[in-house]
What does this fold into?
Amino acid sequence: SAVISQKPSRDICQRGTSLTIQCQVDSQVTMMFWYRQQPGQSLTLIATANQGSEATYESGFVIDKFPISRPNLTFSTLTVSNMSPEDSSIYLCSVGVGRNTEAFFGQGTRLTVV
Amino acid sequence: ILNVEQSPQSLHVQEGDSTNFTCSFPSSNFYALHWYRWETAKSPEALFVMTLNGDEKKKGRISATLNTKEGYSYLYIKGSQPEDSATYLCAFAGTGNQFYFGTGTSLTVIP
It folds into this structure.
């Protein structure tokens, strides 16, 4: 199992600014995943972060908008850059070792952009 | 983009009622189907990971079934309690490392 501490839990930000979300895992993990849930939508994968390499972004998400850092095997950050109201969402980090084992999640960051 | 659908979108039941939700997913390239329970301001927590057609799993009052040939899974809650109030998410895992989530079923159990 894994326990993930995600910060901040919520924030209200002005448009045009950036917010960095942090996730700390209590054990070393190879891959960390960042998800977004827009209002009324499903959890959607933004990117996969591997330690020591560039993050892999899903279609529709770009590094300039969502830069990710993965400095070691227990920590990652996601930055939401140049925010607009459309970025208002819940952001979740997650870890897992495979498709047939349960994934573990942070508590989520509820972001509101005004 | 794979389509994973959950129904109903939301549900209000009386304490003691039994209820069930549906998750529909692609029947091709199936690897696993996950169910998670997500309470407000908490982390989603895993209920079940199901991989075999015909699988039935149970945890206390909650159980789930899986039909990979027709692409659906049911989650059942027997004798709902207020503490069961949460959003229930299913996630489809196929080829690759990505999970595809449904939009969830929001359950409210009224005391």
In short: Chain B touches chain A at residues 1, 4, 31-32, 34, 36, 41-46, 49, 51, 89, 91, 93, 97-104 (CB under 8 Å).
